[in-house]
Design brief:
alpha+beta; 3-stranded antiparallel β-sheet; 4 helices; 3 strands
């Protein structure tokens, strides 16, 4: 009886390992990100995207690093999500309506020292 239980347990373990999803990581240039508020906007927006595990926006280096499940999303979809949040992603331009909805301090050419991070 113990041998059967161990065999079943081992079989379940092998099957589970075989269907594990692949995790990918991508770095996307986000040249229009200029402040902490931009960082928070993109991170919060992308965390709602399917398969996204982690998001880290470095507004000083102007890059966004995303870890995601490759069966649930892809690089093109992640770029589009950044565009839909109002920001440029690699060579793709931000969605015009989303860009217009950004606060003035998050728009291209704005003075990032005037940005005020929203209260939690």
């Amino acid at each position: 009886m113990k041998a059967i239980k161990l065999t079943l347990l081992a079989l379940i373990g092998f099957v589970s390992a075989g269907i594990a999803q692949k995790v990918d990581k991508v770095v996307i240039k986000t040249p229009s990100v200029i402040c902490e508020e931009c960082k928070d906007r993109i991170e919060n927006y992308l965390k709602r995207e399917p398969g996204v595990l982690t998001v880290n926006v470095d507004y000083k280096k102007k890059i966004t690093t995303i870890t995601y499940l490759d069966e649930r999303n892809n690089v093109e979809g992640l770029r589009t999500a950044i565009n839909n949040a109002g920001y440029d992603a690699d060579d793709e331009t931000a969605d015009e309506d989303a860009y217009k909805a950004l606060p003035a301090c998050c728009k291209k050419g704005a003075d990032s020292t005037k940005c005020v991070k929203p209260a939690p």
